[in-house]
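Continuing the batch. This is chain 6 of the set; chains 1 through 5 are on the previous pages. Same settings as before, nothing changed between runs. Recording input and output for traceability.
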Amino acid sequence: MWYSKINKRESADAIRRAMVIQPTDAAQPTGATQQAVAQPAGSARTIEDGRTSVVRLSKKHITVFALCIITAAGLFAKGSVDSETAKAYFEIAQAYADVSKYDKAVEFYQKAAKDPAHKNAAEYNLARVYGLQGEWGKAKSILAQQYTEAPGNIVILKAYAYSLAATGDGARACEMYKKLYDTDAENPEAALNYARILILSKRYDQALSFIEELKTQFTESADTKALAALEEKIKKAQEESAK
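Output for chain 6:
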């Protein structure tokens, strides 16, 4: 599909912009899970020379961390997934996602989603991982359900709209992002996001016209650099499509 040709780094960055914040309301992680989202598993306890010491978890030691969490949560004692078990699964999935081990992240997000208290947060992150893998059909299916359940959740709306654009439904995606921009037109990030979705949907002429309008509205250095970067991206995309 056309979206598979997007530069992988640019695509990943765009996904993180669209889905970086945990959804609230209907897709809200609870209790300790919220802490895990904001600060993915930071340390693990080990016993050394009869004393307990705290060591910072290195991403290279993710397997050791996973075993510690599983043992601590007593996951081998029972097959059902309670909230503590789901919390452990969620943290393991977050750690795997952080080091781009997406297949393992998918496995543990799916396990965490079996607990009602973690279901929405786990599935939202699962959709994000599918997007990072380029499996936008799977991501869209999850986000469509979450959007149906919480249409007023802006974070879910943005992610769902992005998934629509990535699967070829640019018209609907642009419409959704345009509404977001119209309700927050003074926010440069809202404007930039709308320009980005126009570009993702290959509406280059419309994007260029919109960017020209934004140049007179947003004159801060960071904003002008962002607009220039989008113009350069359009130029490269047009050159690529002309080959």
